[in-house]
Design a protein that fits this description.
With 339 residues, the chain is an alpha/beta fold. It has a single domain, classed as TIM Barrel. The protein is built from 12 helices and 10 strands. Strands 1-2-3-6-7-8-9-10 form an 8-stranded parallel beta barrel, surrounded by 6 helices. The termini are far apart.
């Protein structure tokens, strides 16, 4: 294991006030979002959209790493420059999503398990040769009347740990994403309890697999009530619950924490991150940043609409959104900055 390379990559990803851009949507997810925005769901439009993202001027000032999808890592700009090389030229470290999505877990009704561990070692070797230096694997944990079960949590966290070990074997930094999803009507307290259980099991499994936490980035959900909960809470309360949950369950040796947005609006995701830094600035044992997808991309996608004439305006929105997230990481974001 190339420990120094892993630590250097993880440190670079968590540097300054930058964050990660998740542009790793599957073809199915990308097609769904294109349909909603009135954009044709073809491979060329997906390529053109991703070119719009990776060629955004000054994006490297805001973003330290970009998570790609298998289709994207092979794609190029109209001028024939690979996206992965475009990112590196901008000072952005290329990464890639390596899980193959979730399926129903056998004998666990209503719960999901992530696929993709078979053949992962060989895929990691290939991605490293292409230039990827970090990866992402997402586990989905669902809060329901009888879920999540202990068996479902253990199975998903074991897979995350196995994936992380294989990544480090190949000098690739693993991002571990144990997402407790926002769907449902659960309370803030319930989300905090489940998220804590999941994180505790994750680090137990990582230790069993001898994963070096100095070369790992955690991508967790924020602690929030379910989207259907009648008891929504204020930004400060959610931020406090999130950080307290992390402090109880995340070892200080991990390289960093980069939140997923989990379906929050761009403004709300930014405000929550900002509140955490305002309240806990200088008191956290690890860097705390963002790894947003839709919460950075959506305004740009809605503006682009698949038309070349809208590229500059869409890129400006993408950069602005990422800049606001930078401000939130510094604890300097205000709602007035949105205008």
């Amino acid at each position: 294991m190339k420990t120094d390379e892993l630590i250097n990559t993880a440190t670079a990803l968590m540097t300054g006030d930058k964050g990660l851009l998740a542009m790793d949507e599957s073809i199915a997810t990308s097609s769904k979002r294109f349909e909603e925005a009135g954009i044709p769901t073809t491979i060329e439009y997906r390529r053109a959209y991703r070119e719009m993202i990776v060629t955004t001027p000054n994006l490297g000032k805001c973003i330290s790493g970009a998570i790609l999808f298998d289709e994207t890592i092979y794609q190029s700009t109209k001028k024939g420059v690979l996206f992965i090389d475009t990112l590196k030229k901008a000072g952005i470290i290329p990464g890639i999503k390596v899980d193959e999505g979730t399926v129903d877990m056998a004998n666990f009704p209503g719960e999901k398990i992530t696929e993709g561990i078979d053949g992962l070692r060989q895929r990691l070797e290939k991605y490293y040769d292409l230039g990827a230096r970090f990866t992402k694997w997402r586990a989905v944990i669902i809060i329901g009347e009888d879920s999540p079960t202990k068996g479902n949590i253990e199975a998903n966290m074991h897979l995350l740990a196995r994936y992380a070990a294989l990544c480090q074997e190949n000098a690739i930094v693993p991002i571990v994403e144990p997402e407790v999803v926002m769907d449902g009507d659960h309370s803030l307290k319930k989300c905090a309890k489940v998220t804590g259980k999941v994180l505790k099991e994750l680090f137990k499994q990582l230790a069993k697999q001898k994963v070096d936490l100095r070369g790992v980035i955690l991508k967790p959900n924020m602690v929030l009530p379910g989207i259907k909960s009648p008891k929504q809470v204020g930004i400060d309360k959610a931020a406090k619950a999130t950080v307290e949950c992390l402090l109880k369950n995340v070892p200080p040796t991990i390289a960093g924490v980069a939140f997923l947005s989990g379906g929050q609006s761009p403004q709300l995701a930014t405000a929550h991150l900002n509140a955490m830094h305002v309240k806990y600035k200088g008191k956290l044992p690890w860097p705390l940043t963002f790894s947003f997808a839709r919460a950075i991309q959506q305004p740009a996608m809605d503006t682009w609409k698949g038309l070349d004439k809208n590229i500059k305006a869409a890129q400006k929105l993408l950069y602005t959104r990422a800049s606001l997230d930078n401000a939130a990481r510094r604890g300097e974001y205000t709602p007035e900055m949105e205008s």
